[in-house]
Amino acid sequence: MAAAALVWSRGELLAEHAYARPHAAAGRDLHGGFDANGTYVAPRTLHRWPAIRAWQEALAARGFPLVEATTRLLSAGSYPNESQQKLLLQHGLGETFWNTLTITGVIEARGRLLIDLPAPDFQKIVVEDLSHTATGHLTKGLLTAHGMDEGGDPRTRLGAHDEMWFAIRDLVFGAGAYPLPEIPASIARPDGGRLAPLLPLAHEQLLSLLMNVLMIEIRAENGFAFTQRLLADPELFSDRRDAALLGHELVERIRTDEAVHVAYLQLVLSELRSVTFVASDGRRVPGSEVIDPMWATLVHWHAVESPRLARTQMRDVLHARIRAHADGERLVAAFEALA
Fold first, then answer.
1. Per DSSP, which regions of the chain are E strands?
2. Would you say residue 150 lies in a domain?
3. Domain tally for the chain?
């Protein structure tokens, strides 16, 4: 493989396709666009996808696999589950689903912090040359492109994932159907002390951020499928079927966009697992000894601890919300029977 295929400029990694038609939906001008065949094309992927595939092939050629980064890591389903959420919607109790869509949009908007993230250079603590890797391009466009996908390019008025989730919400419920919910301060793993004390703190913090974001993206994939099933259900949103189907399509476009995020984050962790770190005390440490235990800790938090905590925190709130219904006690019993 030619070395040129492994080195890309910031401008190239942020470059757009020449869209045949811009992306607009639900009264919003949005990022991405459509090719001549009418197929949706994710924003800033003209060179980003070819670059990621080239780096993946280079890693494989060195004999290193990609770390596991699929929904197979997840052991807990959504709460409320699909049947419970459907019960709520069929009885006019849409606030829970409204809140989910709203919170998702707000959290997506927070992703814009990646645009100007002051990330440390991993080359300073890695023996091998990173110039031909995804890791070496984190601050050369990969993080910026990710942030723009989530929260929008500040140079344009085009809506990104935050606006797309708000559009989906308003399509099926109407704008302002419920009060804005309280937004969690963070859905990342809380700070429980250092996980990679061999590394400088700034590099450990960036690693933790990338791992948390990757696990959030993996969890989001389950959420996308969950949301699409509800929107496609002919027994739901019966007075807004066309709007619900458009919402379903918008979720699919978000899924298309998010695939590139999972791919590059998985690749960066895999690359760093393959290299040799220079520890703060000067020792040389195999990357797997740093990445594997740290990744296992973050996976356990997102796959086991976080869902359990969320269920505990939400259950009483949901019961109170259901009991406010005229047939509340019966619906609480029915809700729990579907658990």
1. 21-25, 28-34, 40-41, 276-278, 284-286
2. yes
3. 1
What Cα–Cα distance (Å) separates residue 187 from each residue in 9, 55, 171? 32, 30, 26
pTM of the model: 0.94
Sheet holding 21-25, edge to edge: 21-25, 28-34, 40-41
**What letter represents residue 189's amino acid?**
R
Helix (H, G, I), strand (E, B) or coil at 90: helix
Q: 63 in a domain, yes or no?
A: no
Residue 93 CA to residue 86 CA, distance in Å, equals: 9
- Parent domain of 253: 81-185+201-337
Per-residue pLDDT tens for 247-258?
999 999 999 999
Cis peptide before 293 (omega within 30 of 0): no
CA angle 96, 328, 92 (to 5 degrees): 45
Task: Give the burial class of 225: count Cβ atoms within 10 A of its Cβ; 0-12 exposed, 13-18 middle, 19 or more buried.
Answer: middle
Report yes or no on 73 lying in a domain.
no
- Distance separating alpha carbons of residues 95 and 275, to the nearest angstrom: 48
Residue partners of 136: CB distance under 8 A and separation at least 6:
122, 123, 130
Give the pLDDT of residue 97. Answer: 97
Buried (b) or exposed (e) across 43-68, using 16+ Cβ within 10 A?
A: bbbbbbeebbebbbebbeeeebebbe
Nearest Cα to 169, choosing from 112, 84, 254? 254
Look up residue 65 and give its amino acid: P
In whole angstroms, how large is the CA radius of gyration of the chain? 21
Q: Which residue has the tokens 């493989």?
A: 1
Structure confidence at residue 1 (pLDDT): 35
Asked if residue 263 is part of any domain, the answer here is yes
143 residue type, one letter: L
